[in-house]
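Quiz preparation item.
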């Protein structure tokens, strides 16, 4: 799951949870006979959430039903967008490669990711490499995470990955370009003692 999608999911779930806790807690407090402010919509054990007067108050207003329908339509569209975002794949299942015969070939995305990660992991100073392909089948993008050794020079390692692993992947897949985002982080290690 992409970072943006997981962030949106967490925010929406947190907001929905807070809203449900607030509504449920206030209804429970009113039902248990707790002292509530005078402006609270319900205030007793036998009180209902919406009285007959509350339900019929806005019916005769001309703006009421269009507003209710518009708000519900927006909520349905947002819920549908959220649902469809969950079905979208973050990684490419396959990449289309020009085979020269006019038909093309399909290469599994995981296979290209594995080769890219293996070759990037062989660079001096790289402890571990991970790769993911995103985008469209005809225009993939690479995301590479490199875990660097303490002695590594990040600039040299990045240049070696760009000139080596990324260039080889781009050429072997017959792509004009392969945009890449490379993230570097240091491997965790213990402090060395000097005596």
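Solution:
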């Amino acid at each position: 799951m992409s970072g943006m999608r997981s962030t949106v999911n967490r925010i929406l779930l947190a907001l929905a949870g807070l809203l449900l806790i607030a509504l449920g807690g206030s209804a429970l407090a009113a039902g248990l006979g707790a002292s509530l402010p005078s402006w609270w919509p319900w205030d007793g054990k036998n009180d209902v959430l919406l009285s007959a007067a509350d339900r019929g108050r806005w019916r005769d207003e001309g703006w009421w039903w269009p507003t209710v329908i518009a708000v519900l339509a927006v909520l349905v569209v947002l819920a549908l967008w959220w649902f469809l975002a969950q079905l979208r794949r973050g990684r490419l299942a396959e990449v289309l490669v020009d085979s020269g015969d006019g038909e093309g070939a399909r290469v599994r995305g995981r296979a290209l990711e594995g080769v890219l990660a293996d070759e990037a992991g062989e660079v001096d100073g790289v402890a571990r490499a991970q790769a993911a392909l995103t985008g469209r089948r005809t225009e993939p993008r690479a995301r590479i995470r490199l875990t660097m050794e303490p002695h590594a020079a990040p600039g040299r390692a990045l240049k070696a990955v760009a000139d080596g692993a990324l260039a080889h992947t781009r050429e072997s897949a017959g792509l004009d370009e392969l945009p890449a985002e490379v993230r570097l982080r240091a491997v965790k290690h213990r402090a060395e003692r000097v005596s």
